[in-house]
Amino acid sequence: MIDLQGIHKSYPVGKGKLHVLKGIDLHIGAGEMVSIMGSSGSGKSTLMNVMGILDDYDEGEYLLDRHRIRNLSERKAAGYRNKLLGFVFQSFNLIPFKNAMENVALPLYYQGVPRRKRNEIALTYLEKVGLVDWAEHRPSELSGGQQQRVAIARALISEPKVILADEPTGALDTTTSYEVMAVLRDINREGTSIVIVTHEHDISHMTDRLIHLTDGRIESDEPVPSPVDPRSVAAAAPGVAESA
Amino acid sequence: MFDLDKWQEILDTIRANKLRTLLTGFSVAWGIFMLIILLGSGNGLANGIEYQFRDDAVNSIWVFGGQTSLPHRGLAPGRQIRFKAGDFAAVRDGVDGVEHITARYYPQGSLTVSYGSEYGTYDIRSVHPDHQYLEKTIVKNGRFLNEVDQEQFRKVAAIGQKVEQGLFKGRSSIGEYININGIPFKVVGTFEDAGSESENEKIYLPISTSERIFAGDKRYRNIMFTVGDAGLVESQGIAQDTRAVLAQRMRFSEDDERAVFVRNNVEEFQRFVSLMAGIRVFIWVIGIGTILAGVVGVSNIMMIVVQERTREIGVRKALGATPWSIVSLVLQESIFITAIAGYFGLVLGVFLLELVSENLPASDFFVNPNVNLQLAIVATVLLVTAGAIAGFFPARKAAGIRPVEALRDE
């Protein structure tokens, strides 16, 4: 699904440049659930941005679902992002003046789906994340966990091949984090690849494969011995049952 | 193509920022309002000037007799110059470019005019039939004086509306006889004059009849003629020729400015026309300046909007928004705000002008301030253009936003 070969990326800093990615070779197959860890400055966010076609790279080759991603026009990049990728961000990034349903429907707006139809579809995805009753609420009226679930529904609505989640639980407390991970795990089980950037060990151990990034290189890339099912942990945590 | 969803988006963002939108709109509305008020006032001024010229044909040249101030061919200065029928004929036949020509002769002394038991004192002008074209006299009933009246010394009169009202008290005067100093004149027509009220209190008599009956000294007060559609330079030539013809006949120096006075209305009118053109340019410069200030305001605020929405735009791009969809979003919002606000200013300006126009005390220099349809269309085009200009730079900035930078969490 995601094929990275010898990816290099550097940013200009002052007169010199900062070499962030120093030759990344990475293959992520369909249906995988992968976490990327690394200290800050290790290049994990940059890698995520390259994978998300949010940023270009200097060297190497990137194939996304067999499409060569290189020097794309803005328009083409937008099309790939829309059809192949779903994004989940640490700070949710919902549009504040739109309600949950409209936020979820937004990617379909850019596909030209008529309003009534896309709102209908948005409702089914909100149901999937258990928030259909909150469809008419603005983001500011939702809790952090709820906002992140709306964001996940938004990432899902275009039925992407890959969901890229950059610190999806970074702004959430432990209990809510596990709820969100449970949702992501369910989605993964339906066949969508998921890449999660995180610095929390408990989160990374809920995925199937763990990639460690150090100083712009892959330090280790191994399967997680026995992935934790977030649902079982969430059930054990106090006060989750009623809010889920 | 009308994209309902896009408008929905725009209305959403506007609704989310009511106060800001209002303030932005105000600057544009104010600009257009000022432009409309300025242009309307300009029109009022122009109408006022036109009103000043409404009485007489603007393409006319008036010649008055004066007093010689230079010795000429052995004649001492100080002679009175007064025109006679021969001088009139000389100008009529000897000057190229003369279109309609008439002389004016005022009988001496005050003449009483009566009909039955009604009496009145009116200004009596003895003129040639062409006088009609020089005073913009509009015949209401019957006819004006004609050549036959002139040739046959008919005792006929054309009277102003006020005269008819005064003497006939609402009845028709056509075919009736009025007495001027005891001499009956048949009323052949009544007229209306676009000029001042007093122009409607005149009685016109054929100059030939008048000369014969009232004797006088058979000297005309002035000669006046129109010059067709002659331009400024041409009319100046005609005025010069007239002076030359009269100087030749009446033996005064052509350089003697005070022997005859020539008033060239083409020249006068031209002066006002160029004055008006100047005022108009001035108004447009000020008006465009005011609108420009509004445009800069809108642009500025849209810039801030884009700045504030950087993250949102980044999210939209990550979700698959094309650069064009972002540009058009900002551009449309800008045009929408400018157009609506501008239209508001336009309506308000027009409304105020109408109000002023209705309640303005009569003034000769400021008449019927208004804006016409053409101007409204120009203003509308201006508004949309202004909105587009105002939105251009912010939109370009918005399109240039890289989602990575917009989404950075720091």
Keywords:
heterodimer, A: 244 residues, alpha/beta, Rossmann fold, six-stranded mixed β-sheet, 9 helices, 10 strands, 27% strand, globular, B: alpha+beta, 2 domains
Could you describe the 3D structure shown?
With 244 residues, chain A is of the alpha/beta class. Chain A has a single domain, classed as Rossmann fold (3-Layer(aba) Sandwich), CATH 3.40.50. Chain A is 36% helix and 27% strand. Chain A contains 9 helices and 10 strands. In chain A, strand 9 (209-214) and strand 10 form a beta hairpin. In chain A, helix 3 (100-109) runs parallel beside helix 5, helix 4 packs across helix 5 and helix 6 packs antiparallel against helix 8. The model of chain B has no long low-confidence stretch (mean pLDDT 82). Chain B has 2 domains: 4-53 and 270-407, no CATH class; 108-215, no CATH class. In chain B, a hairpin with a 2-residue loop joins strand 3 and strand 4 (118-121). In chain B, strands 1, 2, 3, 4, 5, 6, 7, 8, 9, 10, 11 and 12 form a 12-stranded mixed sheet that branches. In chain B, helix 9 (265-308) packs parallel to helix 12 (373-399). Chain B has 410 residues and is of the alpha+beta class. The two termini of chain B are 40 Å apart. The A-B interface holds A 49, 52, 54-55, 74-75, 78-79, 81-83, 87, 89-91, 93, 95-98, 106-107, 109-111, 115, 154, 158, 166-167, 170 and B 4-5, 8, 12-13, 15-16, 311-312, 314-325, 402-404, 407, 409.
Greatest chain-chain contact: A-B, 31 and 26 residues
Integer count of domains of chain B: 2
Order of helices and strands of chain B: HHEHEEEEHEHEHEEEHEHEHHHHH
Question: Structural class from helices and strands of chain B?
Answer: alpha+beta
Topology:
The complex is a heterodimer of chains A (244) and B (410).
Chain A: E1 2-13, E2 16-28, E3 33-37, H1 44-51, E4 59-64, E5 67-68, H2 74-84, E6 85-88, H3 100-109, H4 115-128, H5 144-156, E7 162-166, H6 174-189, E8 193-197, H7 201-204, E9 209-214, E10 217-223, H8 230-236, H9 240-243
Parallel strand pairs in A: 3-8, 3-9, 6-7, 7-8
Antiparallel strand pairs in A: 1-2, 1-4, 4-5, 9-10
Helix pairs in contact in A: 3-4, 3-5, 4-5, 5-6, 6-8
Chain B: H1 4-16, H2 18-52, E1 60-65, H3 85-94, E2 101-105, E3 112-115, E4 118-121, E5 123-127, H4 131-134, E6 137-142, H5 147-151, E7 156-160, H6 161-168, E8 177-180, E9 183-193, E10 202-206, H7 207-214, E11 222-226, H8 232-250, E12 260-264, H9 265-308, H10 310-318, H11 323-359, H12 373-399, H13 403-407
Parallel strand pairs in B: 5-10, 7-9
Antiparallel strand pairs in B: 1-11, 1-12, 2-5, 2-11, 3-4, 3-8, 6-9, 7-10, 8-9
Helix pairs in contact in B: 1-11, 2-9, 2-11, 3-8, 9-10, 9-12, 11-12
